[in-house]
Design goal:
By secondary structure, this protein is mainly α. It has one domain. It has eight helices and no strands. Helix 1 packs across helix 7. The chain starts with 12 loop residues before the first helix and ends in a 7-residue tail after the last helix.
Length: 302
């Protein structure tokens, strides 16, 4: 004999619909809470970055505005730290940036050479490679490289100082942490990242020219003539301006995460992890808006 199922095991279509609606509502509520938290955290981060930039600007004004304060303790420390950070960002990251940009230029020019050669558009290979590298790939790759290599190192170093109360010790000795820790890194990044961007533009374009010569048998003069006809000074200015903005953004994110670190060794690792993720997202999102602002009015084909 077959046993009858209990009434609690029987789910009517109406109950199923109610359960489905309840599950959908819960999912929507969870999604809404997540979006609200994301927006709130983004606004808080933007506020912290603005405050940090304001403090750096005020500290820089105090340094360059006469009458100058008494020399040598804070000034010598700041100068030494600025030189060290400039070497860390610019010199130590230079080879990696050039390597990544060269590889991207090789791949881009390889695809362009194969496709354009089949359609008799060899003269446009140089224009495509140079415009893509100078407008987008050079600044982005330089910023992502500096962010991954130097941004996380900045966050870890400052976070270690924060959790071991070295930042509090600076306040005790009447040394402004923003002026001593953040400002030298900000100046170093504002100088080094545009230079790295320029190096990435040159290396990517040159590597693309070599590949176009080997694959499409395009003479160097033809490649450079295409670059000269389509690439403008405005493109190079935008590329360097993107490098400047990305450099400032990297330092703001890294120093904010480092100064806000609390706890022990795990807080240092968490600060480095958040810095890497935020830099990657912030650079790509900022690049989208900068490209939209600087090129939408001119037309992307100009």
């Amino acid at each position: 004999m077959m046993m009858a199922r209990p009434e609690s095991a029987i789910v009517s279509p109406l109950n199923r619909g109610a359960l489905l609606i309840a599950g959908s509502i819960d999912a929507l509520v969870t999604l809404g809470q997540t979006l609200i938290a994301l927006v709130t955290n983004t606004v808080v981060l933007l506020g912290q970055w603005v405050t940090l930039l304001k403090d750096c600007g005020w500290a820089l004004i105090q340094i360059i505005r006469p009458p100058w304060p008494k020399p040598a303790f804070q000034h010598s420390l700041a100068a030494t730290e600025w030189i060290r950070q400039t070497a860390l960002i610019g010199f130590d990251s230079g080879l990696i940036v050039i390597l990544i940009s060269s590889i991207s230029g090789v791949v881009l020019s390889l695809h362009a050479a194969v496709q354009f050669s089949q359609n008799g558009a060899d003269s446009y290979i140089g224009a495509l490679a140079a415009m893509a590298i100078v407008r987008e790939m050079g600044p982005i790759f330089a910023a992502l490289t500096v962010g991954a290599r130097c941004g996380t190192a900045m966050a870890s170093e400052i976070a270690n100082m924060a959790v071991t109360q070295q930042v509090d010790a600076l306040n005790t000795f009447s040394v402004n942490p923003t002026r001593y820790l953040v400002l030298p890194r900000l100046i170093a990044a504002a100088i080094s990242v545009p230079l790295l961007t320029f190096a990435a533009d040159i290396s990517g374009t040159v590597s693309g020219m070599l590949v176009a010569r080997m694959v499409a048998h395009l003479h160097f003069s033809q490649f450079l003539d295409s670059v000269w006809r389509f690439l403008t000074l405005y493109d190079l200015q935008v590329s360097l301006a993107k490098g400047l903005i990305f450099g400032i953004l990297i330092v703001c994110i890294a120093c904010t995460q480092g100064l806000n670190a609390r706890g022990g060794a795990q807080a240092v690792g968490d600060a480095a992890t958040r810095t890497a993720i935020q830099i990657a997202v912030a650079v790509l999102v900022t690049d989208f808006f900068l490209t939209w602002v600087w090129f939408s009015g001119r037309g992307l084909n100009q």
